[in-house]
């Protein structure tokens, strides 16, 4: 075993390690990253794993910078709105909200049982964040651990990487299969992006709404008479004809590398602060009862 307690090389993915490696590492770092992905339709030029690739690109950089272990990716997320009509969302996989919350909960209880005190879930897929508040609270209330949910820079929250992107606000550069995501998928898995199929596209209000409603990005909100005042549970194909929101023609592998590095540094800085939290789960609250 090496001086840093890692026996099987320079991996921070617990999938690659033995239990002795994880046990030894836990003695010096009781924070762990929980990797949450998605398999869903993007523009024709992007892979179904775009959100997963982006999350892992950032997680891998942050883990190395902070010497923090991470779980293997949970590749399926909450994506019912991406299933589409038959033939449109082919390959998309989704959990129900109930199943997704159960996965989040049982991963947490497994890690807490083994001795972790601070859990940071990391996702790139925005809709994964819609269904988890109650389960995160349950985990905290039952155990007293720290549990956080980190969403990588994307959609409306990309201030930390805004200087890398060139698209105007009207091009929604942080959205679905646009400049940002095409770049990150290209950087993480260059062979997964088919730029010859890339076409810019914009969102619109569903055709069944009246002309009083408009829509300018991929959020669940619609605008009525100039005010974004209503959230509607819409299917993705109802407001995005091609599953592309933005201008992927502005994407590049080099931009993707810079975005992943910047995102990894942001996540790393977050983790370093979380490590300082003086939080310990009492022994009597670590019990793992779901053995059926």
Choose one word for the global shape: globular
- Count of discrete alpha- or pi-helical segments spanning 4 or more residues: 7
CA-CA gap between termini: 35 Å
Succession of helices and strands: HEHHEHEHEEEHH
How would you state the average pLDDT, rounded? Answer: 94
For the biggest sheet, the summary is: 3 strands, parallel
Strand content: 5-15%
Strand and helix layout:
Layout: H1 19-26, E1 31-36, H2 50-66, H3 97-114, E2 118-123, H4 133-143, E3 146-151, H5 179-188, E4 213-214, E5 221-224, E6 227-231, H6 236-239, H7 253-275
Parallel strand pairs: 1-2, 2-3
Antiparallel strand pairs: 4-5, 5-6
Task: Please give a structural write-up.
It is a single chain. The protein has 292 residues and is an alpha/beta fold. It has 7 helices and 6 strands. It has a 3-stranded parallel beta sheet with strand order 1-2-3, with helices on both faces. Strands 4-5-6 form a 3-stranded antiparallel beta sheet, with no helix packed on it. Helix 2 packs across helix 5 (179-188) and helix 3 (97-114) runs parallel beside helix 4. It is globular and about 60 Å long. It starts with 18 loop residues before the first helix and ends in a 17-residue tail after the last helix.
Short recap of the structure:
This protein is α/β, with parallel strands linked by helices. The protein has helices spanning 19-26, 50-66, 97-114, 133-143, 179-188, 236-239, 253-275; strands at residues 31-36, 118-123, 146-151, 213-214, 221-224, 227-231.
């Amino acid at each position: 075993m090496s001086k840093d307690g890692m026996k099987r090389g320079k991996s921070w993915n617990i999938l690659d390690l033995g239990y002795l490696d994880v046990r030894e590492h836990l003695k010096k770092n009781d924070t762990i990253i929980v990797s949450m992905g998605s398999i869903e339709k993007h523009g024709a030029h992007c892979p179904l794993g775009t959100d997963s690739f982006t999350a892992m690109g950032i997680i891998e950089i942050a883990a190395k910078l902070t010497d923090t272990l991470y779980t293997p990716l949970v590749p399926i997320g909450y994506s019912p709105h991406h299933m589409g009509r038959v033939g449109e969302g082919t390959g998309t996989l989704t959990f129900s909200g109930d199943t997704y919350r159960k996965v989040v909960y049982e991963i947490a209880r497994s890690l807490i049982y083994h001795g972790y005190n601070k859990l940071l879930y990391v996702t790139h897929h925005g809709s994964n964040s819609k269904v988890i508040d109650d389960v995160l609270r349950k985990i905290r209330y039952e155990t007293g651990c720290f549990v956080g949910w980190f969403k990588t820079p994307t959609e409306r929250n990309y201030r930390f990487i805004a200087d890398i992107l060139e698209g105007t606000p009207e091009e929604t550069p942080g959205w679905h299969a646009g400049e940002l995501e095409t770049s990150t998928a290209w950087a993480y898995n260059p062979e997964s992006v088919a730029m010859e199929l890339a076409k810019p596209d914009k969102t619109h209000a569903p055709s069944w709404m009246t002309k009083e409603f408009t829509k300018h990005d991929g959020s669940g909100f619609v605008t009525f008479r100039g005010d974004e005042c209503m959230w509607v549970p819409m299917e993705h194909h109802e407001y995005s004809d091609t599953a592309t929101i933005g201008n992927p023609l502005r994407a590049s592998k080099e931009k993707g590398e810079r975005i992943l590095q910047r995102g990894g540094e942001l996540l790393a800085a977050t983790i370093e602060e979380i490590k300082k939290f003086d939080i310990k789960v009492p022994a009597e609250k670590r019990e793992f009862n779901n053995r059926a």
